[in-house]
Amino acid sequence: MAPATGGAKGASARLRVAAVPAAARETRHWAVGFVREHGARASAARTVELLVSEVVTNAVKYGAVADAIAISLRCADGAVTVRVTDDSTVRPVVRKARPSDLGGRGMELVERLAEDWGVDVDARRGKTVWFRVSLR
Predict the structure, then answer these.
(1) What is the distance between the alpha carbons of residues 50 and 100, in angstroms, rounded to a whole number?
(2) E strands, the chain, where?
(3) Histidine kinase/HSP90-like ATPase domain: from which residue to which, for each copy (predicted)?
(4) Furthest-apart CA pair in the chain: how many Å?
(5) What's the CA gap between 58 and 12, in Å, rounded?
């Protein structure tokens, strides 16, 4: 894990985790600690916890990761931007899960709960799913 850095423009931190099921748990605890240190309300910390877990789980399940999943956090201007990078170039799909579906709600949650979100694809490096959540 890279140490958190800060300054006049905000604070940031990075983490690399193996693409294993435990990655979501490790990453969400790390992210919640980071946003709490930077003034997140309890509800904002819970939103970050949920969305980090969903996006990292997608990277583990569908990211075709050769080495590790990279996660970065940046707090600035009262919000945190989370970036999760894996080796796949396939964009995640927002779909409406039926009540009986056991999964498939992750990106729908990101779309509903994040202030903004998107996907950056690089044909040689994979994709980064990012989202922004207000800390206030």
Answers:
(1) 20
(2) 2-5, 11-17, 69-76, 79-86, 116-122, 126-134
(3) 18-132
(4) 48
(5) 23
Whole-number Cα distances in Å, 98 to 62, 93, 102: 21, 15, 9
Q: CA 121, CA 127: separation in Å to the nearest integer? A: 4
Beta strand pairing status for 126-134 and 116-122?
Answer: antiparallel
> How far is it, in rounded angstroms, from Cα 111 to Cα 96?
11
**45-57 pLDDT, tens per residue?**
999 999 999 999 9
- Give the containing element (helix H, strand E) for 58: helix 42-62
7: left (phi over 0), alpha (psi -120 to 50) or beta: left
Q: Which CATH number fits domain 11-134: 3.20.20.70, 3.30.565.10, 3.40.50.10750, 3.40.30.10?
A: 3.30.565.10
CA 15-68-21 angle, to 5 degrees, is 90
